Amino acid sequence: MGLPAGFQWGVATAAYQIEGAVAEDGRGPSTWDTFAHTPGRVAGGHTGDVACDHYHRWPEDVALMADLGVDAYRFSIAWPRVQPAGSGAVNPKGLDFYERLVDGLLERGIAPAATLYHWDLPQPLEDAGGWMERDTAHRFAEFAHLAAERLGDRVATWITLNEPVVVMAYGYAFGVYAPGRTLMLDALPVAHHQLLGHGLAVRALREHGARQVGLTNHYSPAWARDASSDADRRAAGAFDDLMNRLFTDPVLGGGYPVELPAGVVRDGDLAVISAPIDFLGVNYYQPTRLAAPAEGSPLPFDMVGIEEHPKTGMGWPIVPDALLSLLRTLDTTYGDRLPPLYITENGCSFPDAVGPDGTVDDADRIAFLDAHIAAVRTAVDEGVDVRGYFAWSLMDNFEWAEGYGPRFGLVHVDYATQRRTPKRSFAWYRDLIAASRA
């Protein structure tokens, strides 16, 4: 068996990673602008000030997607471009940009899939407490209303949040991503306030007739270092609760798998959070191996290396079977409560370079994508309802705290000249998509 008729092929990006133009046409600062301009926070002192200059070059990028033959494009709407202060007055020029992009996609037969929050919180909201504050959830719903009011007649698919676990863990607990706070387990209110914002945004989107609304989570299968060790298994279970189930259980009506601080969850919140969604986005890159925590550790687990599998250019283990296992686990864990799934991100970084003949031979990426798409096919054959696959990413871009070193794209970007060069993986993916329609 193959993938079902109508299976959606796409590519994905995020606003701060590609747009640039951070001070143009009324855009306000985000937490990532502040973080990237803080010395020592981002490798090489890199920032997203210019990135891939997609704000000006979007017609070229849409043309690349049309050549690729994708059904859909997952992009994010920069909150500070639409609402520079994070509340109050809207910036019409910001919405104008996304309207041009959406219309350009539709003219090429590409369905827009808009993510409302891909980590670029307006800095004034962070100054007021950010996602540690309940009010941010209500401001997010206001932003969702503004975006859907302008674009809802043309955007059928909406994703509220991208990887809220990363915002909580990397942004507020460990401090390695914006806003760079180091609260450790005291960051748990960030989880609830993001999910409350999700539920309120679902309501706002529905009010504007949104047809497909979902949430995208980052999932990493938890492996106990020693499966025969009770302590290691408990560590893996704790990681699974905090990194996987915390952002899925309450959305699907199951409540929280961990205890949140007193007073954070209020009456009626879980009903808002568990409003029905039409799909669940799955972002997968690698599994995580866990061991019992060392004495005095602030966390209930220690992460240990996975050395028996090949690695990407960022040192991430390449384990396609873990994606298959993840899809099976979601299906068996949530059963009838699980909505249809989309792989909303999957990809890899390798040190790609343009060769003397002007081509980029990224055979490692082709092998990675081929093996992971095969895992999706197997899951579908087994009855898991997966309806689409979005490769990360359309093009090389700003890779958060790693700056411009890692390259995840199907298209190589020369950041000095902004020249786009499709890699061999681009042609491979184009052929795969075409063959699936034959």
UniProtKB/TrEMBL annotation:
InterPro entries: GH, GH_1_N_CS, Glyco_hydro_1, Glyco_hydro_1_beta-glucosidase
Cellular component GO terms, alphabetical: cytosol
Entry-linked Gene3D superfamilies: Glycosidases (3.20.20.80)
An example Gene Ontology biological process: cellulose catabolic process
Coiled-coil segments: none
Transmembrane intervals: none
Catalytic function, reaction form: Hydrolysis of terminal, non-reducing beta-D-glucosyl residues with release of beta-D-glucose
GO molecular function: beta-glucosidase activity
Active site: 163, 345
Source organism, top-level taxon: Bacteria
Residues that, per the record, bind substrate: 17, 118, 162, 285, 392, 399-400
Pfam families, per database record: Glyco_hydro_1
Xref: SUPFAM superfamilies: (Trans)glycosidases (SSF51445)
PROSITE patterns according to UniProt: GLYCOSYL_HYDROL_F1_2
UniProt keyword Hydrolase present: yes
Record-listed E.C. numbers: 3.2.1.21
Keywords of this entry: Carbohydrate metabolism, Cellulose degradation, Glycosidase, Hydrolase, Polysaccharide degradation
Family: Belongs to the glycosyl hydrolase 1 family.
Name of the featured protein: Beta-glucosidase
Originating gene: bglA_3
